[in-house]
Design brief:
The chain is mostly helical and 120 residues long. Helix 2 packs antiparallel against helix 3. Helices cover 77% and strands 0% of the residues. The longest helix is centred in the first third of the chain and has 27 residues. The chain has a single domain, classed as Four Helix Bundle (Hemerythrin (Met), subunit A) (Up-down Bundle), CATH 1.20.120. The protein is elongated. The chain is built from five helices and no strands.
């Protein structure tokens, strides 16, 4: 995997610039939604992988890719994009390792985002 920043600082600054002077309230809200939603999408990946539900699997990977890109979680976005692409090309065969990578990258992103949104 290419060497991506866990969280792209420019993406965070772009989000902050959308609502300047709010003491990061908007950023905290967006991060909160991401941290609440992404585990649900990971569960969808796991369940649809077991069930062989390719459309649901691909949608979950796509959703993770998009939300990760919005927050600048670039390593997570990369793995989700790879997972989405491979599921479209070859199905879910061999996808379990990438789902594990998604979990690991999400844990890294969560740790960095938690640091960013701590009250100042």
């Amino acid at each position: 995997m290419p060497d991506f920043a866990v969280i792209d600082p420019q993406a965070i600054e772009n989000l902050r610039s959308l609502n300047p002077g709010d003491n990061d309230e908007f950023l905290r809200e967006i991060v909160g939604i991401f941290l609440e939603d992404t585990p649900q999408r990971i569960t969808e990946l796991e369940q649809s992988l077991k069930a062989g539900d390719l459309p649901k699997f691909t949608r979950a990977a796509h959703s993770i890719k998009g939300s990760s890109a919005n927050l600048g979680a670039m390593a997570l976005r990369f793995v989700a994009e790879k997972l989405e692409h491979e599921s479209r090309q070859t199905g879910v065969a061999g996808a379990a390792a990438l789902v594990d990578s998604i979990k690991a990258e999400f844990a890294r992103a969560r740790a960095e985002l938690d640091k960013l949104v701590q009250p100042r």
